[in-house]
Design goal:
Rna Polymerase Sigma Factor, Chain: A; 8 helices; 180 residues; 74% helix; mainly alpha; Arc Repressor Mutant, subunit A
């Protein structure tokens, strides 16, 4: 898929045609949305907003894309940055308006996983734990990349991952005990 995505990107940059962009968009948006959904704890509307903003930013920079990595990884970097910015904005808003917490909708568990128990356990993790777990264990980012993208220390990324995995094991263990 990566070679195909890179070829589609090159075609779009070369011709700037709507058809080339549609092909690129339809091939890569599902993966970007999956990442955004995991980062947003299953909040589909937020994830869709993040993906849309990511595409706006990426299109502005596509002619400068160099292929040291894959197009997918490059686009996922936009998703992570947009999510991080949205998270910071939300934290500022929540600090001034605590009523926002009452309006959060429960996550849509069917959106990207066939394992609702695992999905709910991941969504229930604190935001920092969830972000590092998803970026490292699901998306394959290194701790250095995570630290750069989230604006944290590499050691913080490592400790957050360790704590996230421990909490996830605890929550899955409790969930399994409740099912018996």
């Amino acid at each position: 898929m990566s070679e195909t995505a890179e070829a589609r990107l090159a075609a779009f940059v070369r011709r700037r045609s709507e058809a080339d962009f549609r092909a690129l968009y339809h091939a890569l948006t599902p993966g970007m949305l999956g990442l955004a959904m995991r980062l947003c704890g299953g909040e589909r509307a937020s994830a869709e907003d993040i993906v849309q903003e990511s595409w706006f930013r990426a299109v502005e920079r596509m002619d400068r894309f160099e292929a040291p990595g894959s197009v997918v990884r490059w686009l996922n970097g936009f998703v992570v940055r947009c999510w991080s910015e949205a998270r910071r904005a939300t934290i500022r808003e929540e600090a001034t308006d605590a009523a926002v917490l009452d309006t959060l909708a429960p996550p849509d568990a069917s959106a990207w996983s066939e394992s609702p128990v695992l999905l709910q356990a991941v969504y229930s993790l604190p935001e920092g734990y969830r972000a590092v777990l998803v970026l490292h264990d699901v998306e394959g980012f290194t701790h250095a990349e995570i630290a750069e993208r989230l604006g944290i220390d590499e050691g913080t990324s490592k400790s957050q991952l360790s704590r996230a995995r421990r909490k996830l094991r605890e929550r899955l263990s409790v969930s399994m005990e409740n099912r018996e």
